[in-house]
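Chain X:
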Amino acid sequence: MSTETVNTPHVTLSFTASAALRDSFQRVLVNLIALELVGKQAHWNIVGPNFRDLHLNLDEVVGIARTGSDEVAERMRAVNATPDGRPATVAASATVPVAPEGEVLTTDAVAYIVSAIEAVVATLRDVHDIIDGEDPSSSGIIEDLTVQLEQQAWFLSSEIRKPVR
């Protein structure tokens, strides 16, 4: 067995994210991870009217958050930024409101998860121009997530909304 060091080529990517771009992506990442976690928490613990539909709808929200966090983290790597999705980082940085403990009535769960989605969308909208200004190739990710999550907030909030007359 040889003790020689194997030379591995070093790949230099053509674009490196600035601190502002990296921080914007990181804000989105931690909020998407938090949304995935609280979405599952609500999914497991909702009780009451329309349980089945809401149980399934929460999985849609979780899926968007999970897929979105992976896409954001991989885009970060593609632009020479290092994503940080460690639990302590997510807990310290996310702006998603704390999930209720224990069983939650479906109407309360809807109100909560809509507020959690709105927190993520606020972050997406807040960082959009920074990301678009520095890396227009990445802004589509932010825009797609905004559209998907706003649609979910609408779907869910319609469960508890009263008609406007």
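Chain Y:
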Amino acid sequence: MINNKRHHSLSVKIGNKLIGGNNPIIVQSMTDTDTANIEATFRQIVDLTEAGSEIVRITVNDEDAAKATPYIIEKLRGVGITTPIVGDFHYNGHTLLTKYPDCAKSLDKYRINPGNVGFGSKQDSQFQIMIEQAIKYDKPVRIGVNWGSLDQALITKLMDENNKKTVPLSDKQVLRDALIQSALVSAKRAEELGLASDRIVLSCKVSQVQDLVVVYQDLASKSNYALHLGLTEAGMGSKGMIASAAAMGILLQQGIGDTIRTSLTPEPGTSRTKEVVASMELLQTMGIRNFMPMITSCPGCGRTTSSYFRELAQNIGDYIIKQRAIWKEKYPGAEGINIAVMGCIVNGPGESKHSDIGISLPGSGESPSAPVYIEGKKFVTLKGDDIGAQFMRILEEYVANKYGA
């Protein structure tokens, strides 16, 4: 059962979105284009938004990127895309935000990494400048700590203190503590400078599942800031998705996390939008939010007929993706439909009855007929060479009848 008691976090307004508190858990993504390339970055944000991303982060790493940012956002708003855009700053954010006020004003949120906001005597002053810009333009800030770029002075200090203990902690435990301390101390400093606590989001990202779980459990117990959740550098393909789902799934089940990102390494030739789909499917399969109709399908065995049921499941999935935006506007509620596409009579009829609408295809040893079930009751038995096309028409009629005005 999902933990209905969410981590008691403050509600934060980011553009036209509210995160934290009792608001829905939001799906976030990040572009990988050169931000100075206005058209490419605009196009990718459009793609990510259309895929379902509700917040998009862009890199603002140099003057050309800072100059391009307001034009990208203006172009997005011009075509009706209101998705909040977050600026990701490292090393020189204090300079870019002050030198390019149009960039600072146009962004919906700033992301600051305490580990590289500045070094030595400059660290405090450069952090202060960024927070002051956030206050000036009324922007929320994500203080995002990452163990790949953790403040080395802080690590050294904590390691030295740990070595003096009678029973010292492991190096990994010290690193975890350093992550949390960096985030909380930075947040406290931001508040001292005048940034309200409900304008602060925290994240402490690591790349190992068990480390992420422990760090966020500790962070949630020590603060009520909104939390951005994600396994950093999760990896490519199935490894990245499985690791992210394992880590975030545990924490989401415990009510921890207000925004999430699945940080996948894109496979060559694949779309950046895969990370968005992975996050949406995680939330939906856990029963936390609905984004699009979900398909339940069997893995296949010696009883199923070659690849027919697999092709039908794929075709229905492709059809749903194409229809998703239309259904969302025309048929509110249809995103929660559960569709079953089963390959034979062993579990097919039963699974179909449990779904809103389902089809049990004939296996290799059964008669060439396919019963269709709607809301637990047998609706019709399909026969012939176009069973798939017949079922698609029934599906469209079901959606229109149940969710149409």
